[in-house]
Write a structure and sequence with these properties.
The structure holds two protein chains of two kinds.
Chain A (H helix, E strand, L loop, with lengths): L23 H15 L16 E6 L5 H12 L3 E6 L11 H10 L4 E6 L4 H8 L5 E7 L5 H15 L6 E5 L6 H12 L4 E5 L15 E3 L2 H4 L5 E4 L4 H5 L6 H8 L3 H4 L7 E3 L12 H4 L6 H21 L1
Parallel strand pairs in A: 1-2, 1-3, 3-4, 5-6, 5-8, 6-7, 8-9
Helix pairs in contact in A: 1-5, 1-12, 2-12, 5-6, 5-12
Chain B lengths: L5 H12 L8 E5 L2 H13 L5 E4 L8 H4 L18 E9 L3 H11 L6 E9 L11 E5 L6 E7 L5 E7 L3
Parallel strand pairs in B: 1-2, 1-3, 3-4, 4-5
Antiparallel strand pairs in B: 6-7
Helix pairs in contact in B: 1-2
Chain lengths: ~325, ~170
């Protein structure tokens, strides 16, 4: 099958699984649609009737608070009925397969699955097996993709910087284990960002990272110099246990974003972080809460972006 | 078919609306043609009226059949709807479904004192109990015919008809 699993025969978005291979036209359409949903958050009634009567199932096989909550808020603002299933404590523990779980929920007349799974490709597997009227949205799978996070980051960049064509963007931190970084790299490349850097120690970069069209830097001094956008990644605590890194203190000293290092970036640079943050490890509190930070607006925009994605896939 | 000059029709609308204006009145134009009519009306009414723009894409009743309109624009109501007399403005009134959607949209911003409807052309073919309070012209068009307001690069308005795609 050659056709992109995410698109309908006439090229419209029906599932959102990864930003890899999605044309700029669709990314831009999602961002434009999200623009219209942002203003709904300022109204008395923060709901529109688009998905009235539709059943959206949040299938979270892996923990998440922010992503699950913003998907839930987004679905509710679209007037959908939302069902949150915390599967790690449910029938998967009794031995049911992923596809059996999905088949059962489909029999309960689901219209959309929002899926987070520790295994890469789980949302793709579900998308291949659901009935044609059901849409699947990937809320993060393994190390593969986190497309709605990538999109809300693009929305945030476009909001503050007006576009992508003159930007120098740095993604700093654990790129190796980050599905967020992968989605950001695909989106920024597709949307025409001319200079995209990744900044990390060698042990936290995938071997093939240069083939993704990024410039590799191993120090902050060169990495964030003159950047317009700095995206910090979370350093997962479990990485500290292995031999990838010396210590949290050492990491902070070299790759943590501090007010001093911020002086290397452009004066109007924005700082982003997908959360949850490790203050004092990858980012200093003075930067996280400072004038360059757009970390909380990212969360707010995430609702509008998820509303746009859900209303587009449900309608196609 | 000889089509009327929209500027004459807007003159007519302005004359009808003027006596009913209240100090709190506000105008809401429906994207896109209704917004053009609203802009032309404001010039003729020559009073400082609050104006807003509605995009009804999120309120359409055919979403489950045709999906989301690809070029949805943000609605913008830069005033408090609560308790205000509202004049809702569109270019062409046909089935009435757009107006139904627009009324629902307005109520999600608050409870207006009243909503009156101003349209440039009533082309018949209603499917809902909607009728205009202020009207430019009534025309009887067949179901297969399509009429719309167009605006050129110089801001000149004209009405145009074509056969709708089957």
């Amino acid at each position: 099958m050659n056709r992109n699993l995410q698109l309908t025969a006439d090229g419209k978005l029906h599932h959102l699984l990864t930003l890899d291979g999605l044309p700029a036209r669709i990314l831009t359409e999602i961002l434009d649609t999200a623009e219209s949903f942002v203003s709904i958050g300022d109204r008395d009634v923060k709901k529109v009737p688009l998905l009235r009567g539709k059943a959206v199932f949040n299938l979270f096989f892996e923990n998440s608070t922010r992503t699950r909550t913003t998907f839930e808020i987004a679905a509710k603002r679209l007037s959908a009925d939302v069902f949150n299933l915390n599967i790690s404590t449910s029938s998967q523990n009794k031995g049911e397969t992923l596809l059996d779980t999905v088949a059962n929920l489909s029999a309960m007349q689901a219209d959309m699955f929002v899926v987070r799974h520790a295994s890469s490709g789980a949302p793709h597997l579900i998308a291949r097996h659901v009935a044609p009227h059901i849409s699947v949205v990937n809320a993060g799978d393994g190390r593969c993709a986190h497309p709605t996070q990538g999109l809300l980051d693009m929305f945030t960049i476009r909001h503050y910087k007006g576009g992508f064509h003159n930007l120098r963007v740095a993604i700093v931190g654990d790129v190796l284990h980050s599905r967020v970084a992968r989605s950001q790299i695909h989106a920024l490349t597709t949307l025409g960002c001319p200079e995209l850097r990744v900044v990390a120690p060698k042990t936290l970069l995938p071997r093939d990272v240069e083939s993704m069209g990024v410039h590799v830097h191993h120090t902050m001094e060169t990495g964030i110099k003159d950047c317009d956008v700095i995206i910090m990644l979370r350093l997962q605590n479990e990485r500290m246990q292995g031999d990838l890194l010396p210590s949290a203190g050492e990491y902070y000293k070299n790759w943590g974003l501090t007010p001093d290092k911020m002086k290397l970036a452009r004066p109007d640079a924005i700082v982003m972080h997908p959360g949850p943050m490790n203050r004092g490890v990858e980012i200093d509190s003075d930067v996280a809460d400072g004038k360059h930070s757009v970390i909380l607006p990212q969360v707010t925009f995430g609702i509008a972006v998820r509303m746009a994605v859900m209303s587009m896939v449900a309608g196609n | 078919m000889n089509l009327p000059d929209p500027n004459r029709l807007i003159d007519r609308l302005a004359e009808q609306i003027r006596p009913h204006l209240h100090p709190d009145s506000a105008l809401l134009g429906i994207h896109t043609g209704g917004v053009w009519v609203m802009e032309a009306l404001v010039k003729r009414l020559a009073v400082d009226l609050p104006c807003g723009v509605l995009d009804i894409a999120f309120y359409r009743d055919d979403f489950s059949r045709i999906g989301l309109h690809p070029e949805v624009k943000p609605s913008s109501i830069p005033f408090d709807v609560e308790g205000r007399p509202i004049v809702l403005i569109d270019d062409v009134l046909y089935t009435g479904r757009t107006i139904r959607a627009a009324i629902n949209l307005v109520f999600d911003y608050g409870r207006p004192a009243s909503i009156r409807l101003a349209v440039l052309v009533d082309r018949g073919g209603r499917e809902l109990p909607v009728c205009p309070d202020y009207l430019g012209v009534k025309m009887d068009l067949e179901a297969g015919q399509h009429i719309s307001l167009e605006r050129d690069d110089h801001g000149r308005l004209r009405l145009a008809t074509k056969r709708a795609a089957p």
